[in-house]
Amino acid sequence: MNDILPIVLSILAAVLVIGALIPVLIKTRRNITRYPETRDANDPEVRSGGGTAVDDSTGTIELGTPGGAGPDVVDTTTVPDDAAGLETIPVETPLPVAGRLTRLRERLVRSNNIMGKGLLALLSSDRIDESVWDEVEETLLLADLGTEPTMQLVDALRERVKVLGTRTPEHVKAMLREELIKLVDPTMDRSLNVERHADKPAVMMVVGVNGVGKTTTVGKLARVLVAEDKDVLLGAADTFRAAAAEQLATWGQRVGVPTVKSDIDGADPASVAYEAVKAGIEQEVDVVMIDTAGRLQNKVGLMDELGKVKRVVEKLAEVDEVLLVLDATTGQNGLNQARVFSEVVNITGIVLTKLDGTAKGGIVVAIQRALGVPVKLVGLGEGADDLAPFDTESFVDALLN
Asked: Residue 108 is part of which domain span?
């Protein structure tokens, strides 16, 4: 009996120790730890506003504390044990980019073939007189091609029709295809600058007015990059639109991509962008994508804001890509938005959303002519994977089929 007593006491002691440790371990696992601020407090453009919070349960990195914790404060906030109200978002596997191109081309054929079929019918007429050329010109203008590109295309077609003489539908289609491809310009570099540098990630800013699907486009583009095996981090620098940061974080969670955002309404966008790039450097990611605000009510304010975001980010890393998101259904009105943004930052590429439905295919040419930069990505629907790299020949073939 005396031999058994020490064993029993040892077992009881072990049970008590384990029982005491379990709550501590659970609490530690569920903590959201706010780390000390590391930004340069002497830099007037990088506003100090609390620490960086990493939530392991959502992959979201939050900046600042509601109480305005200073640079030297480490605040620990515990997630309640009852997490029944928290939404669990499963991680999805994005579709391969190659598969999207085929599907998007088919959708483009269905929605944008009025322009191509109209031109084919007109140019296949037995007799092409001035009234036919007027209709060709009108068809191109209605397709949002723009005045200058329309005149250029009509002149080229006139010359080729004279030389061609007899015209079969096949000849006309081949002629139109060649001239449209020239107009869309296959020589433009449509690749995304998303290759990681030796010691820093590639940095991409995404700009555009509110309502064009900018934040959604950032989320969809993150899926494109993840499908290409890129390690991505998102920065929610649109701090003025309600729920923009949460929307972006949700997109990130769907593909396992972390999001840096502020938990303070109206926080300094440049500060959020700075922290996103800093986190990207520390975590050695391939690409940091920064979503920005898009208010156009005050052009001067927008210029100052976007310019500041870019300057502050470049204290840490070069901005490799600035994508402008435009709604294709706005037609020529979208060109005015494009010009405003091109005055603010150096636009390197266009993302054209909603290129289905009422959108006109000619807007691709008009926008490229107006800005001198290529359309790099197109969106053709509401689906999460309805965004794909723009391909000149596929686009023209879709117009003519």
From this structure: 97-184
